[in-house]
Amino acid sequence: MGIANLSYEEYRQKRVEENKKRLEDLNLVHLSQTLRNLSPKSSPVKSNRISSPRKSYGVPRSRDLSNRVYATDEARAYALEKAEKLVSKLEEEGYPTLIRSMLPSHVTGGFWLVIKPITYSNLLITTTIFN
Prior knowledge:
mainly alpha, 0% strand
C-alpha cells in the first residue's frame, strides 16, 4: 500500500495507545471489571396479584327506538307556519333571523342543534346580499 496509508495506520495505533493510557490513568479499566463482577442481575419477581378484567370500550350500546315520538305532517306544517310568522315579525323590527327545522335525532338522540355565531353571520350575509 502507499505511504499515506502507512502513516494513517501509525497515527491510528498511536491514538489507540494514548487512549489506553488515559483509561489506565483514570482507572476505568479496573472499575468496569469490578462492577461487572460485583453482583449478577437478579431476575424480576412475578406478582401473585390477579389483575382486574379489562374494560371493553368498543362495544356500542344500542338505543331503544321503540318509544320515539314522531311529529305528524300537520304538526310540522303548523310549526313551520308559526316560525315563518315570527321571522317576518322579527325582520320587520330589524332583527336577523334564521329558521331551521330539526330532525327527530336532534331532539331525542341527546344532540342539541347548535348554530355557531360565525356560521350564522356568514349565512345571514349571503342571504341578505343575494336576496
